[in-house]
Amino acid sequence: MAELLKSNRRDFLKIAGTAAGGLFIGFYWSGCDSPKMQVLTDEEVLSQAHNFNSFLSISPSGDVVIYSPNPELGQNIKTSFPMVVAEELDADWEKVRVFQAHLDNDKFDRQVTGGSGAMPHSWERLRNAGATAKFLLVSAAAAQLDVDASELTTEKGQVIHSKSGKKIPYGDLVTDASKLDVPEEVPLKNYKDFKIIGTPVKNVDNKAMFTGQPIYGLDIYREGMVQAMIQRPPFGMKIKSVDDSEARKIADITDVVTFNNNVAVVGDSTWPLMKAKKLLKIDYEPDGNVESTEDHDRLFQDLMEKGKAQVMRQDGNVDQAFGNAAKVVTAEYQCPFLSHSPMEPMNFFAHVKGDKVELVGPTQTPDRARMETAQLLDIPTENISMELTRLGGGFGRRLRADFVVEAVELSKILDKPVKVTWSREDDMTGGAYRPAVRYKFQAALDDSGKMIGYKLRGVGINAGNTTRENNFPSGSVDNLLIESINHNSPITTNAWRAPITNFLAYAEQSFLDEVALEAGKDPVSFRLELMDRAKKDPVGEIHYDIDRMKGVVEMAAEKSNWGKDSNVMQGFSVYFSHRSYVAQVANIEMEDSQPVLKKITAVTDCGIVVNPTGANQQVRGGIVDGMGHAMFTNMTFANGLPNQKNFDTYRLIRMKEVPEIDVHFVDNGIDPTGLGEPALPPTGGAIANAIFKATGRRLRSQPFIEQKEFSDIKLEIKRA
Amino acid sequence: MANYSLKINGETFNVDVEEDTPLLWVLRDHLGLVGTKYSCGIAQCGACTVHLNGEATFSCTLPVSSVGSDEVTTIEGLSKEGDHPVQKAWNEVDVAQCGYCQAGQIMTASALLKKNPSPSMAEIEDAMNRNLCRCGTYHKIREAVALAAKTK
Questions:
Q1: Which pLDDT score is estimated for A419?
Q2: Domain ranges in chain A?
Q3: pLDDT > 90: what percent of chain A?
Q4: What is the pLDDT tens value at each position of chain B, 152 positions in all?
Q5: What is the mean pLDDT of residues A667-696?
Q6: Same domain, B41 and B58
Q7: Gene3D superfamilies from the xrefs (chain A) (predicted)?
Q8: Does B51 lie at the interface with A, CB-CB under 8 angstroms?
Q9: Which of the four, A444, A548, A579, B140, has the lowest number of CB atoms within 10 Å?
């Protein structure tokens, strides 16, 4: 059964036949009225060169080439995007080859990895690309066989006429298909008929990754290239003087350059650069606030008590509700700064050649990097090429362009192609952290245990809006006040996987656990009652789908056997972020009177699951990420510099510290809503709530292992 | 500067570098063997793991001067066609997310299985705990090592 979907008017389809008979389908997603039609030469199509950048091409041999436009950092988009195209095309996956497209605003849009948004944004476009090609191939087959197209089916790269038993491979049809008019709308499959989507498809880069091919930014070596490392200043400081005499004595160091408060050492290989950088003697002087963690703790206290807050949302009359309350529950939660710490440190290759620039490297936002480069050099963006490598992780750090622009600036100064490599210490001390935030929650309960008032006040350091004011429990409480205060600091911050919610979810879900207990209610029932209230009689705007949220709550309770086994201490958490819904239950069991974290059950509603193997890992990886940082990782500052500079003191979660993770998805046929981030936010809350259940200790700050409430708890973690 | 003759992946390479240069940077910057990854530089994460006479070794803190005539194997030399049992298991289980740490993980796993062809899950974890994976693919790494041990 097929559903008919109108083609998106912003998408312009270009079909090109070639003398050699190839079929090329390109989508132009620029959103302009007159798309730039590009006529490709046969050589371009057949060579399948990287500058070709088409979305999909089928050669007479039946080979299907699909270009994946979004930066790949482990979210598996380079495999799942082509799966969607291949699905509607009914391609033989064995004959599909995938290439990373480079930045091209004319041919692609939203070449960004962030906000868990790639699949939701491109889902319809990808399907249309595959379905349109299939429609043309079927039309060509109908003409060849002189039958009606309705008698034809497609399977694994062939058009099949079952009446006659004839099968025509796609490759034999592309020449004819390329001469046909492109239809304005094409039928799309019903999701129940998917054959590739919903099946486990292996990562297309497996072989390259597992044999050590040069696919990451740090692996880029170009003719005539020099290498550089940069000493950046502590936050709030500027250079007073530089003594580079010792650094210059290191063999292989060809230059030392001071620019923009940075000192770059330049040479031909990395090790001499590392040695020389350590020998730089740089005097800094204050250039604004030079902050330490004690300053932030004091700021948090002052601003929480007396700061002028921005009201983010106000429903009813909280003063009245709290005045009438039978019971008031108050708690404060705090999180530290965190480094993104992708395994591949920041790096970029830049070559400024007059008014042209060649850029190569790992970035989550190639367009932004190119724009900032254009601004820096005052040249048009068309003069800048941007080649995308695979990213050795990102977690939001590579949404910034600082590491690109500095390489550009250095290349211009040196008049040479340059690769700038950040050491781990540079990466950890060079900025753009998850902001530190403190929250104060207050709940007013009436004498029946109903939550009649709710207040949240968030204070953040370079955090922007510290709240998600229209998220749950907003809509379920009559009287509600949500406020945010931001302190501007020289310490740079940036989106960190599931921005704000990576900590807010833990704080909120822990607090709601506290409130449920004070109200004498089961934590799951308490949440469901609030959701029912929001469904029946919502207070103000609601920006989440209550049915989907309830769905994951109920399924998680069922899958985790919630409350059924008195030997298992369970903690519950549910959160909506980036369009998807995830509920989690952490199980702690007592063994020899010691708490053992054994399992986390996760139920996710992200709509249709494109690739189960990738999706399953996104959830597990998100949980491991959320758990590791909630439990172990801290970052403190002294005089504008992090105290933790490498993995010896900046503790990341390891294999022996992960429990069993049981992953479930809701099967509802809704178009995909995103999965790179949503599994992370609920994890800290689920674990903290289980720890409370098992030990009576409420953990209100992260990382858990550094809290005094945790000091005498020996939590073991075991895997099945 | 000094000249070193290194046995890597069954071949002999001559390099002229400072004696304190870590093997990692000799491989990457001087020999073009970039499959061995830099991540922490202080023997904490395992991304730079190679085999030294079959033993899993952090190449980021191993001075080239101490390699001598020891046999070095990198991810590029683990198998000719990328079909070492561990590589095959890694593909079968579809372990990687970003993939950056995976060469190091595979080198640690393959060294373990050479010494201990049938490790228990506890032994697998003991061996693999030294390798960090920021994406959190630990469950799949366990599964892949166990699968490689079974299929070997």
A1: 98
A2: 2-197, 217-287+346-421, 437-717
A3: 84
A4: 899 999 999 999 999 999 999 999 999 999 999 999 999 999 999 999 999 999 999 999 999 999 999 999 999 999 999 999 999 999 999 999 999 999 999 999 999 999 999 999 999 999 999 999 999 999 999 999 999 999 87
A5: 97
A6: yes
A7: Aldehyde oxidase/xanthine dehydrogenase, a/b hammerhead (3.90.1170.50), Aldehyde oxidase/xanthine dehydrogenase, molybdopterin binding domain (3.30.365.10)
A8: no
A9: A548
Strands A451-461 and A479-487: parallel
Share of chain A above pLDDT 70, in %: 92
Topology match between the domains A217-287+346-421 and A437-717: yes
In angstroms, the Cα distances linking A608 to A331, A605, A668, B6, B54 are 38, 8, 7, 52, 45
Tell me which chain A residues have a C-beta less than 8 angstroms from the C-beta of B30: 269
Helix (H/G/I), strand (E/B), else coil: A687: helix
> Domain A437-717 falls in which CATH fold?
Aldehyde Oxidoreductase; domain 4 (3.30.365)
Judged by DSSP in three states, B23 sits in helix
B102 contacts A218? CB cut-off 8 A = no
Nearest CA in chain B to A646: B40
pTM (2 decimals)?
A: 0.94
Select from B36, B41, B138 the Cβ nearest to the Cβ of A624: B138
| Cα–Cα distance for residue pair A611/A561, rounded to 1 Å | 27
Is the pLDDT at A552 greater than 90? The verdict is yes
CB within 8 Å of chain A, chain B residues 87-126: 87, 90-91, 94, 96-103, 106, 121, 125
**pLDDT for the residue A54:** 55
Phi, psi of B147 (to 5 degrees): -65, -40
> Is there a contact between B134 and A719 if contact means CB atoms under 8 Å apart?
no
pLDDT band at A31 (very low <50, low <70, confident <90, very high): very low
Q: Which of B41, B42, B125 sits opposite A655 (nearest CB)?
A: B125
Instruction: State the ipTM, two decimals.
Output: 0.98
Please check whether residues B104 and B134 belong to one and the same domain: yes
**Best interface-test mutation with A: which of B40, B78, B143 has the largest number of A CBs within 10 A?**
B40
Architecture of domain A2-197: 2-Layer Sandwich (3.30)
Judge whether residue A61 has pLDDT over 90: no
Note whether B94 and B116 are same-domain residues. Answer: yes
Q: Looking at the structure, do residues B139 and B92 belong to the same domain, yes or no?
A: yes
Q: Report how many domains make up chain B.
A: 2
The answer to whether the beta carbons of residues A20 and A27 sit under 8 Å apart is: no
**Nearest 5°: phi and psi at A128?**
-60, -40
d(CA B11, CA B120): 34
B62: closest CA of chain A, how far (Å): 12
Question: Is residue A3 scored above 90 in pLDDT?
Answer: no
Segment A337-362 shows an average pLDDT of 98
Cβ A444 vs Cβ A453: under 8 Å? yes
Q: How far apart are CA A79 and CA A76, in angstroms?
A: 6
Question: Is the pLDDT confidence value at A295 over 80?
Answer: yes
Q: Which residue has the tokens 């309705």?
A: A150
Structural domain of residue B22, as residue ranges? 2-77
pLDDT at A25: 57
Is B55 in the same domain as B117? no
Taking 80 as the threshold, does the pLDDT of residue A4 lie above it?
Answer: no
Last residue of a domain, one of B77, B112, B133: B77
